[in-house]
Amino acid sequence: MGHGKETPRQKMIGMMYLVLTAMLALNVSAEVLDAFRLVNEGIRNTTENYNKKNESIYKEFEQEVAKNEQKAKEWKDKAFDVREKADELFQYIQDLKVEIIKNNQGENIAENKALEEVDGKVVVEMDKIKGDDKSDAGDRILIGKEFNGKAYELKQKIIDYREHLLSLVDEEDTKIREVLEKTLNTDDPEPIEGHEKKEWEVKHFYKIPLAATMPIMSKLQGDVRNAESEVIQYLLNQIEAGSFTFNKLEATVIPNSNYVIQGN
């Protein structure tokens, strides 16, 4: 995504996500559960596209350092620090997803059909989740009996990640800063008329069916990669920001003095 511009596919996924989230107030039918699985798969595919785009940008940093280490190394180091922090937050969310599934269906991955190990990493297979219309599985881990579950820690990690990214962007670059603020927004939502105000954590995860919890968390992972992409592209652009480019040379006479003596 380039500075807030979304592809038709991204807009479609965002719209489906909003519509399906609104349907949580209704009885969760098998058709709705299937729709959540579809949305989750779409979000995962979009996130994978971000991964591929980001890796190509990191390769560009390495190429720039190879050409001119003095000019590019500072920006490459900042970009690779972003990658480290993005990977940490992405994996934290993934570990939460796995923990929820294990809590719901059992610790043993070999017996838990909803979890599959791929390239040394555990992924969630939504179509194999049992009881995905139940809301207590996510509640136990993310909200907790005393409203002190891991969703509160997750929110703080998103805030820390957002603030770090913003610290790398100049105050004058308001467009990209607005994208980061919007993409990684953790503000408590405005209350619906006639209802009490809800915290960000409660709005996203309290009494939410497991089938919806997974796409919500997948979306957060996509937001992490999206924000990463925005910032590393910005940092890559900074390598040449202070350089002058030209495509024409012209001879110019530069006098040594402002006056000419007769005979010289």
Describe this structure in words.
- By secondary structure, the chain is mainly alpha-helical.
- It has a two-stranded antiparallel ribbon with strand order 1-2.
- The termini are far apart.
- The model has no long low-confidence stretch (mean pLDDT 84).
Descriptive terms for the model:
single chain; 264 residues; mainly alpha; two-stranded antiparallel sheet; 61% helix
Question: What is the compact description of this entry?
Answer:
The chain is mainly α and 264 residues long.
Distance, first to last CA: 64 Å
Helix content: 55-70%
> Helical segment tally?
8
Counting helices, strands and paired strands, the structural category is mainly alpha
Radius of gyration: 25 Å
Q: What is the overall pLDDT average?
A: 84
Low-confidence stretches: none
Number of beta-strand segments: 2
As laid out across the biggest beta sheet, the strand order is 1-2
> Which of globular, elongated, flat, extended, rod-shaped describes the shape?
elongated
Order of helices and strands: HHHEEHHHHH
Major pleated sheet:
2 strands, antiparallel
DSSP strand content: under 5%
What is the secondary structure topology, with strand pairs?
Elements: H1 8-22, H2 30-67, H3 69-105, E1 115-118, E2 121-124, H4 136-143, H5 150-167, H6 174-183, H7 200-205, H8 210-238
Antiparallel strand pairs: 1-2
Helix pairs in contact: 1-2, 2-3, 2-8, 3-4, 3-5, 3-8, 6-8
